[in-house]
């Protein structure tokens, strides 16, 4: 994935400001930054659901939103996308049928069983989605995104609200997907300790990319002990640079 001068303007507000970055294949790239900095807007632009995107944004060799990408990208939004009156398995079977119409029932069932195991919901397969906890519903949404073994997974804060054990297990799954299946993952979070689990980071603030590098390189560059400390130092550097370039007021 490669972006150049990607900009999104919503009304009077510029949500994304001339972003440029690269997301390498087969790796986990963390999109880190505070709530409201533009992470979700950028993810919608990548999957092709964000209106009025300017600049260049190529995904898996195609312009973002190209019809050829529909079965190659798995997307998880912050709000779980499941039908409460269907069981977990019925939800997955329904989305599997939409994703690959005409697929044999046995093949579809195998795919559903695989993703249920991936997100550790096999024992809840016959439970109504509406009876699940928030964390379990989030895992159903993740399972939907994993159907068909997509090449790119765009995950918008997939671990929010999960307990530490589930967070650990999901990050282990993410690394398995990248290492064993060759998937590319873009994972957003506002929790800085999750940055340490990523191969590469995009640090965002106020619609801009502050830095793009590995966690180790960012710590070395800023002389920080943690990615969170590195992020704060980069914020301070950006603020200081803005002050020095701001036109001075003239007096009469």
Account of the protein in words:
- The structure is a single chain.
- By secondary structure, this protein is α/β, with parallel strands linked by helices.
- Helices cover 37% and strands 24% of the residues.
- It contains seven helices and ten strands.
- The longest helix is centred in the last third of the chain and has 19 residues.
- The model has no long low-confidence stretch (mean pLDDT 92).
Features of the shown structure:
six-stranded mixed β-sheet; globular; alpha/beta; 10 strands; four-stranded antiparallel β-sheet
In short:
With 252 residues, this protein is an alpha/beta fold. 37% of the residues lie in helices and 24% in strands.
**Largest sheet, spatial ordering of strands:** 6-7-8-3-9-10
Q: Give the helix proportion (percent range).
A: 25-40%
Oligomer: single chain
Q: Unreliable segments (pLDDT under 50, ≥5 consecutive)?
A: none
Q: Give the number of helices.
A: 7
Please give the radius of gyration in angstroms. 20 Å
Mean pLDDT across the residues is 92
Reading the helices and strands in chain order gives EEEHEEEHHHEHEEEHH
Q: Could you give the distance between the termini? A: 52 Å
Q: What fraction of the residues are assigned to beta strands by DSSP? A: 15-25%
Q: What is the number of strand segments? A: 10
Shape: globular
Instruction: Describe the largest sheet.
Output: 6 strands, mixed
Task: Classify the secondary structure makeup into a structural class.
Answer: alpha/beta
């Amino acid at each position: 994935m490669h972006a150049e001068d990607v900009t999104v303007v919503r009304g009077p507000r510029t949500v994304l400001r001339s972003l440029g970055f690269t997301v390498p294949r087969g790796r986990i790239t963390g999109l880190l930054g505070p709530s409201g900095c533009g992470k979700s807007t950028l993810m919608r632009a990548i999957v092709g659901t964000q209106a009025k995107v300017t600049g260049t944004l190529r995904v898996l060799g195609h312009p973002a939103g190209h019809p050829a990408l529909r079965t190659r990208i798995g997307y998880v939004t912050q709000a779980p996308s499941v039908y409460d009156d269907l069981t977990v398995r019925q939800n997955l079977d329904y989305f599997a049928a939409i994703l690959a119409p005409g697929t044999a029932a046995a093949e579809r069932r195998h795919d559903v069983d695989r993703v249920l195991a991936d997100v550790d919901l096999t024992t809840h397969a016959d439970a109504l989605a509406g009876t699940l906890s928030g964390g379990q519903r989030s895992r159903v949404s993740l399972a939907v995104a994993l159907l068909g073994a997509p090449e790119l997974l765009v995950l918008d804060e997939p671990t929010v609200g999960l307990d530490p054990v589930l967070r650990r297990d999901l990050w282990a799954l993410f690394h398995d997907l990248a290492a064993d299946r060759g998937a590319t993952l873009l994972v957003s979070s506002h929790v800085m300790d999750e940055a340490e689990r990523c191969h590469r980071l995009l640090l965002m603030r106020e619609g801009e990319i502050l830095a793009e590098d590995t966690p180790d390189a960012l710590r070395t560059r800023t002389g920080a002990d943690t990615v969170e400390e590195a992020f704060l130092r980069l914020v301070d550097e950006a603020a200081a640079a803005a002050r020095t370039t701001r036109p001075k007021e003239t007096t009469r």
